[in-house]
Write a structure and sequence with these properties.
This protein is α/β, with parallel strands linked by helices. Helices cover about 45% and strands about 20% of the residues. It has an eight-stranded mixed β-sheet with strand order 8-3-2-1-11-14-13-12. A two-stranded antiparallel sheet has the order 4-5. The chain is globular, with a radius of gyration of 21 Å.
Length: about 400
């Protein structure tokens, strides 16, 4: 399948708040996309083996529906002097280490530990398909990320739009947002008038989630921003779409639009994200995450979908065609018994007016590194498949 066609490739990474892969959402990605790239650590692979079983993973690998790209170093936000006037933040990596030697663990050892089978680990790591492989991506430049992202006006704009998108009815939470950030010797201080305890309560009440936003604070928000930045970086390298939660998606959309402003000025085009909603999808993610259905029960549907996907790839599909595809691949399966829900994609298109794309914001920020900018010029777009609803777009 042409990597630039719709529904060709998508990247799935661990949720920045829970630190784990959403396996229900991964299952939905497998149904809609030709190939899903899971980018993760040895810990992510171990959980994937536990969820899907070695046999289930082997079936998905054999179908060409799944690949695992080992990326041992994950990004995080480090907080010092928490809950004091000196509280400060920095971006950091944490890595899979061999606890005996405190050095980077060889990939074959990591995979063997996850599967319990060194022979299988070798077969997955070698051969023409290389079902599990090192991502081969250059390490994310945290110095560049700090310089570009830990910027008061940018963070203030991202925070305000995030609150506006997720909590449009809570005017008092996003009407007068202020945020300041400044650099210290080896870290940054960020101060805002936003009450994150109140924000967490409003999010739980609005989206009916009991524990997801426990302990939400400015550090969590910074991790959402860093995560969106990393998502664009990884997706550009793999020429893929991006799987995002509904809570992280607005930040990635806004960050991408700010980033594209400087590129738009150079190439003479204005880009904006278009929202596409498929109203007759099914609550597959919810069924798997609740334990009502197992992850492996999706594999027969993925197998059934392979022929349809080849046909779909040559049709430049719109929402109605995707709806027909979903109806065909789920017909006479357990999925038909599930409650309905809306599925949502964001695709980058060309806007008729600059104001349509950026809402009149005056920020022009060079956020993208050279590789991401090069991929954009050559046709890659930071499109998103979004897990969950957002009130601004679905009410």
């Amino acid at each position: 399948m042409n990597p630039n066609s719709k529904f060709s490739r998508i990247n799935v990474r661990a949720d920045s708040q829970t630190g784990e892969i959403d396996f229900g959402f991964l299952a939905e990605c497998l149904i809609f996309y030709d190939c899903v790239y899971v980018l993760g650590t040895a810990g992510d692979l171990e959980r994937l083996v536990q969820e899907a079983s070695v046999d289930g993973l082997q079936q998905l690998f054999d179908l060409g529906a799944l690949r695992f790209l080992m990326h041992p170093k994950a990004t995080a936000v480090f907080t010092a002097d928490r809950a004091t006037a000196r509280e400060r933040y920095d971006f950091a990596f944490f890595a899979d280490m061999d606890q005996r030697t405190k050095t980077a663990m060889p990939m074959v050892e990591m995979v063997a530990n996850c599967t319990g089978d060194s022979k299988l680990a070798n077969s997955w790591l070698t051969g023409p398909k290389r079902l599990i492989q090192n991502s081969g991506m250059p390490k994310l430049d945290l110095a560049h990320a700090r310089k570009q992202l830990l910027n008061g006006p940018l963070l203030e704009s991202l925070l305000k739009n995030w609150l506006l998108t997720l909590l449009p009815a809570e005017l008092h939470l996003h009407k007068s947002v202020s945020l300041q950030a400044w650099e210290l010797s080896k870290s940054y201080q960020v101060v805002t008038n936003v009450d994150f305890v109140e924000v967490a309560e409003a999010l739980r009440d609005t989206y009916k989630t009991e524990s997801r936003f426990e302990g939400l604070d400015i550090a969590h928000f910074l991790s959402f921003v860093l995560d969106a930045y990393a998502d664009m970086y990884f997706a550009a390298h793999t020429n893929a779409d991006i799987a995002k939660t509904s809570f992280g998606s607005p930040i990635l959309e806004d960050l991408a639009c700010h980033s594209l402003k400087s590129m738009n000025a150079r190439i003479g085009e204005i880009h904006t994200f278009q929202h596409h909603v498929l109203d007759n999808s099914f609550a597959i993610s919810e069924a798997i995450n609740s334990g009502a259905r197992s992850f492996n029960e999706v594999i027969p549907i993925v197998k059934k979908s392979r022929l349809f996907k080849k046909w779909l790839a040559h049709r430049n599909p719109d929402v109605s065609l995707v709806s027909a595809y979903l109806e065909d691949v789920t017909k006479e399966t357990w999925v038909e018994t599930l409650p309905g829900k809306a599925a949502r994609w964001l695709t980058l298109g060309i806007a008729s007016k600059a104001a349509d794309a950026f809402g009149g914001s005056g920020l022009i920020i060079e956020l993208l590194d050279a590789i991401v900018t090069d991929r954009l010029i050559k046709g890659w777009r930071p499109n998103q498949f979004v897990n969950g609803s957002v009130k601004k777009f679905t009410s």
